[in-house]
Amino acid sequence: MLEFAILGLLHEAPMHGYELRKRLHELLGAFRAFSYGSLYPTLRRMQRCGLIVEEETGGETDRTARSWGRRARRVYKLTGEGKERFAAILADAGPQTWDDDAFGIHMAFFSRTPAEVRMRILEGRRRRVEERREGLRAALARAGEQIDRYTRELHRMGLESTEREVRWLNELIAHEQAEQRERSE
Amino acid sequence: MLEFAILGLLHEAPMHGYELRKRLHELLGAFRAFSYGSLYPTLRRMQRCGLIVEEETGGETDRTARSWGRRARRVYKLTGEGKERFAAILADAGPQTWDDDAFGIHMAFFSRTPAEVRMRILEGRRRRVEERREGLRAALARAGEQIDRYTRELHRMGLESTEREVRWLNELIAHEQAEQRERSE
DNA sequence: GGCAAATTATATCGGCCCGATACATCCGGT
DNA sequence: ACCGGATGTATCGGGCCGATATAATTTGCC
User: Fold this and answer.
1) Most exposed among A23, A117, B33, B93, judged by the fewest C-beta atoms under 10 Å?
2) Are B136 and B160 in contact (CB under 8 A)?
3) What CA–CA distance (Å, rounded) separates A175 from A167?
4) Is the CA virtual torsion A12, A17, A23, A27 positive or negative?
5) Which of B10, B166, B149 is nearest to B81 (CA)?
6) pLDDT < 50 regions, chain B
7) A96 CB and strand D closer than 7 A
């Protein structure tokens, strides 16, 4: 997931780790916060795999101006392979795209995602959330009254959240369909 | 976290891994699903640490009846140390207890948690969620109209969820306070 | 009675990610 | 002149996941 997000952000501009993390925060709105303990090793791995390369700025393009020498910053940029990889993930709508984390990140890049892939991700996510909702409904019904008060409260809250998310997804899907109809006119 | 949950469940009765996982599902209502890839290694580790021991049933107490010999089941039960550990975690209300996963699991054991610890966990969680909420509000305000439609939709949904959770927590806290007042009368 | 499918049951492996921790620099305020 | 807070990179141990393998037992069906 982190790899995917990094790939997406580096499409905007070359960046170093610290900046990447801030943009990551903005993009994902703190609903998902990657730590440096993931970020830096991931950057390393991606470099090793040839998805990104370290930019060798002689010093003149350094955004912070006053760049004289003391620069411990590693600025990374995408390689062709990195771009391909990003496009490949964007085109994917498999089951892994509907779990909590992955879904949010995929959605953050929806404007660059093909319309029919967006649709399949949205629908897959809805199915996934509906399953969770049914599980919670069953648990609440099964346990009835004799269940622990706090556990029931927890399940009630979970059920409400899933119900809201399904409604939200329905609206998004409807919007997508409307757009599709417009396009085909 | 898994360790905590296992400790809590084994207080009810000795159990083997598979059963433990089912009870885990019931308890957490699929808002959190631990995999076998976590469960079995954790069980091992806990045994190594002396928190649980493998029950050496000669065969007669095997719940499935018809137990003649072919039993590949490892039934675990708590040790004194295990019980102490559980009590220690129950009595804790530190920052780690307010992140998403931990909070839910702690709450699932609230009926065995001291009232003032419950209170501190609830309030800590509220503070945590409020922070997230403010982050999302800021992001939405900052970006205004020029932000990507999908990202905004994601943030909007996140904001709504955090607002609801804060309201929910307020109710729970009010309920706790009412109980506290009752008790002190 | 017999066979396939689902359930019960345990286990390992590679890999992602987190929290804690450690450094070092640069800038603004006092 | 100094200090705190942001900037910036990095590692380590550990928790958890998904995929995968294996095998016995139960259940459903013909």
Assistant:
1) B33
2) no
3) 12
4) positive
5) B10
6) 59-70
7) yes
